[in-house]
Amino acid sequence: xxxxxxxxxxxxxxxxxxxxxxxxxxxxxxxxxxxxxxxxxxxxxxxxxxxxxxxxxxxxxxxxxxxxxxxxxxxxxxxxxxxxxxxxxxxxxxxxxxxxxxxxxxxxxxxxxxxxxxxxxxxxxxxxxxxxxxxxxxxxxxxxxxxxxxxxxxxxxxxxxxxxxxxxxxxxxxxxxxxxxxxxxxxxxxxxxxxxxxxxxxxxxxxxxxxxxxxxxxxxxxxxxxxxxxxxxxxxxxxxxxxxxxxxx
Length: 249
Prior knowledge:
Blueprint: H1 14-46, H2 60-87, H3 90-122, H4 130-151, H5 155-169, H6 172-182, H7 202-234, H8 239-248
Helix pairs in contact: 1-7, 2-3, 2-5, 2-7, 3-4, 3-5, 3-7, 4-5, 4-6
């Protein structure tokens, strides 16, 4: 029991987590909508043009949060996969499965917006740059995870096999992050760093952080929605699931 009197371990059970997730979804969805509207307004109408790139840089307010989320979600997915393998917890494997499509979506969005940004800046849609190539590999890892899980009929075996792939693939995340430091690359360095002041105007930074928050809130809301569906599918023979389905009719 925690100091607040809440036994958090009970929420590792699908039966207790399912209603909790349902109560949290509207809050995270509302935060996602409000912060996305605020972030887009700041980024596209308040932040000043860049002194080198003009208004073309504004795609950064979608590209950068998407790229951050693509890496962050993969690490969280691999973490849940590891918990599922180590402790044999059903909910951990379900969370990993629910995270994968959202991570793949953010990875694709990062690559797509990066191409749109790269065309006016570099004169080409794509280069086999270290950062771009490692981000593309991340997309393939997400697709591989989902494909492997779908290819195995037994959910437990599918979770173990895809979980191992997720854990092995996590080595690609630091490669993405440090690629601009380790290799010669066209991709610009980080505008935000833990060891130095931001190299952008305050309104640009505010818009970027608000958009990142919006992406987090969206990811949490959509993953909670997806994991509830996975719980119903995998626990469909349980009495509590039958009761839930009866109530929803």
